[in-house]
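We modelled the chain as a single entity of 103 amino acids. Its sequence is:
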Amino acid sequence: MKKVILLAGLLSSSVVNAGQSFRLLDGDLVHTGMTKIEVLDKLGQPLMKDVETVGVDQGEGLKGKKVESWSYRLDGSIGGEYLVTVTFKGDKATSINSIQRNR
């Protein structure tokens, strides 16, 4: 996760948007609920992948949950370049965050 924050800082952005979808320059839409295969099909391999375990394993059959984040640099439908992070829980996208570069 530290790598994602560092990459966002390097892109020197000032606007942060969190939402359920991101519209690409060609009009195609990436949205929550998509599977990893669907995201790969639309966006290709990410620049970076990060896996985090959220929660604590207390040894009583309860385990932490894994959250995976994929980061991309993409052109948006309204113009400009964005750092887009798609977060997955299991095989489904649960959030999409975008940061516009140089705005």
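As a brief sanity check on the tokenised model: Residues 4-18 have pLDDT under 50 and may be disordered. The CA atoms of residues 21 and 31 lie 4 Å apart.
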